[in-house]
What does this fold into?
Amino acid sequence: MGSAIAIPVGLWLGHMRRGQFLAIGLSNVGRAVPSLALIAFFVAYLGTGFVNVTLALVLGAVGVYGVISHFVQRRSREYGIRLALGQSPAKVVGQVLRRGVALVALGSAIGVAAAPPLGRLLGSLVFGVGADEPLSMAGAVSVLLVVGVLAAFVPARRASLTDPAAVLRHG
It folds into this structure.
């Protein structure tokens, strides 16, 4: 029968307990369960990558949210005065969102410029995707811009809801 491989698929299949392994003979992989080893490998590999990407996006969104929120808090008096003088709340939202997009665009430009040399340095960790691949760069920058705009929208909305009377009274 050939040698066997052990695949930790217990949690993935749902009917095995933690720590149990499914042993598949290498000669029987093609006949019995043709893609189980491949599926288990990709679930483990893509699951780890998905967690890393999600963690990076969440950290980036929290960072953009924090910076823009601090910016809005520091300038709340200015926004209150602008609203009292007749500026529309939509323009206030637009101003804050432009600040958030500029922040994310600056970070993306630095990342795109630094990616090729750092990609060559860490080339063993990037499997199948080159650090200077334009489609990957465009996709990453697009996703980061969308996440940045969504993260900046909450403080922008809060800035547009600033009560001009309260700001002038406590100013």
Q: What stands out?
A: Residues 36-74 form the longest helix (39 residues). Confidence is low (pLDDT under 50) at residues 1-34. The longest strand covers residues 4-7.
